[in-house]
Structure prediction request, 205 residues.
Amino acid sequence: MDMKIDCPVCGVKNGAISKMDTTNIPYFGEVIETSITCPHCGFKHSDVMSVEKNDPAKHTLTINKDNLNSRVVRSQTSTVSIPEAGIKVEPGPKSQGYVSNVEGVIERFISATHRAHALYNEDEESLNNIKTTREFLESILDGKNEATLIIEDPYGQSKIVDLKAESVPLTEEELKTLKTGFTILDQEDLEKEKQKVKDEEDKEE
Prediction:
């Protein structure tokens, strides 16, 4: 479904196009893919949302030439990493959600190394690190290496769809370290918060 909306960035009335599509992902369920694009200012945003309620989870898969086509659902709130390549992408204001496959995720990382190369074109050490990372990622696509793909999502909106993928609940400690993790307070923290509120109320009196 497509519709025109006011651009949230430049404000042009009916200047942006909002799209929403529903897709059924085997072993995961129905997801809604949304996107907003504005031809006036170039603003782009996309996300993927699961129709079903899911628990916070960590998904792991050893990736190689045999599972490059395995489906990957990545929401804008998830952290994606490939430890062997030294890559970790955390969610931020410009994070994009997408439905792709393992090969597509690797290609996104390779594209990121090209952009990084332009930013650090005068830093020889950084350029060497970027080159090493890119060559390692390319070697996975060529079937010469394998690595670990990890997706951590505090809202349970992501998934690696492969029979060999492992999915485990995120612990409270893991949730605390994620950029968009839930704020989890233990009993001691709760008591401190209650006391803080009480002290402020006493001051007002």
User: Anything to note?
Assistant: The chain has two domains: 1-52, 53-204.
